[in-house]
Amino acid sequence: MDRGPPPTSGGRAGTVDVSALETAAARSGSPPPAGASDQTGAEGDRARHEIRFEPAGRTVRVPPRVMLFDAASWNGIAIDSTCGGHGTCKKCKIRVTAGNAPVTSLDTRAFEPDALRAGWRLACRVEVADDLAVEVPPLVTRPKAASVGVGRKVILRPAVQKRFVRLAPPSLADQVPDLERLLAALDDLEVTVELHALRSLAKVLRQSDYEVTAVVVDDVLVDVEPGDTTERAYGIAFDLGTTTVVATLLDLGTGAPLAVESMLNPQQPFGADVISRISAVMLDPGALERLSGLARSALSQLAGEVCAAAGVEPGEVYEVAVAGNATMVQLALGIDPEPLGVAPFILATHRPTTVLASDFGLSVHPRARAVTFPAIGAYVGGDIVSGLLASGMDRDKRIRLFIDIGTNCEIVLGSDERLVATAAPAGPAFEGAAIRCGMRAAPGAIETVGLGDDGVTLGVIGKEEPAGLCGSGLVDAVAELVRVGLLDASGRFVSEDEARAHRPELADRLTTLGQERVFVLAWSGEPGDVGRSVYLTQRDVRELQFAKAAISTGWTILCEELGVEPSSLAQVLLAGSFGSYLSPASAIRLGLVPPIGALRVVVAGNVAGEGAKMALLSVRERAGAMALLEEVEYVELSDRSDFNDRFVDQLPFPT
Q: Fewer CB within 10 Å of terminal CB in the chain, N or C?
């Protein structure tokens, strides 16, 4: 079921937009909820069911036959999900502590019998037919995120300038208007003047005895401040990711970062990937406003946090830069993303338009500018252009490969002579979705795996008890199982006899759960209790194979476009938060990256965020980002008749 809009702004707390519920019911083939035509009448109240959400302490009333996941989402209760409530990720786990919530077939596959008896259910499968009390596990709001990259040294030349001037006061003999008096003191600048600056000019000049600071962004006078404030000019660089949003506060005078904060993208109830979020808008036009509001609220919250952490007034932030893929940026600005989701995959615009920070919902200086990046294609967006800017691929004579691994994997290959790019549909495996024990990179997630004579060695985020497996742990686990021979080249677990013969120290971990072969990474509960443990299934291996086949098909085709052998590449850059924690050796072993020496595989980190910083600190670098739009050639994989055959060829693991 698709998501509905938020509660109506004029309604009472705990209510939802009834028209949205009627629309959702119509799409599901169900009649409108009884009493839905009268939100406050007695008949409507008798038809509704009451849901108490803990620990939020909120009680809401909804019509019958609404899914619990939707009721929570409409009322601002965050329930973890990576599929958007479609029943595929099995992450939306809640516990019903009072009321009747029948067990569904999907619940039985997601929970052990004891958990079902304790009330655990998948929220997207609970159809509200009774008053309920529900416990919602806390959502991780500060995931592990990369905060450094391969940023180059830049010549500090921000678009924001502050000029302190002392002006002669007017007199009867000198009746020059205030603005002309100020502009005469800025005679080396050719500026236009915004109304915002003009409105306060007279008062500021007279209250400060004509000693003021002019704030100029590019060639626009945006404000006039009393006294000398030239030492206080700031900008915020945002990496607006599909999963994680990162904000970095910069001192534009020195180029120094002052504070960094990150959070999960609150759009996650609409799905873990951009296709799910585009689909939500296609199914319900009201979802666009909701998604846009969630993006803006995340940016606004992070802006407030970094300013507070550094002791900076939000009004002293005169420019921001936002690096994000095309879908994320269009959603944040309220631009319909539907054309991005259907062939021929058309952007609203390649080139960024003039945008204010307020258009992104930011409460900084009222006339602060927002820098956005050009998009090469629907799925090679501004975040990749920002990353290319940071990595300097267009300035390097060496042939290098840039890979941003995620649900949608962006790949760029080339040098200062020619650059080619493509996007490969890797799927959600790297985000922990579609993986039985998968989770995001948060405390309790297994992020590294080693197999040896002493058994299994695990690296767990936060050094806590293992609770699940994140993307880097998944890659490590499969790579190690291939290395020790418990997975063959086709991705199948070997037989029990082969495991005992070749790896007796690990053989007991290779077992079955139901009808499926699994490898136990971390035992939990009673000895031999597989169901409560953290394990890797045969299906999990297949999900990773599909992802790696899509990625390797992408870079193989790009290598052919340039006429280079993959093994001859000078360097591979692994970008993004996921790439920051991926083992180069494991990536090579699985064929995620070309077969080159591990030392030539470089963890590039959050290069999208680095590029956003560079755009704030240097107008020259900003121009370089725009130039990349003309320099990078886009290769569309979905238009190639040979893609499916090549994809199948890449499924096996290298031997």
A: C
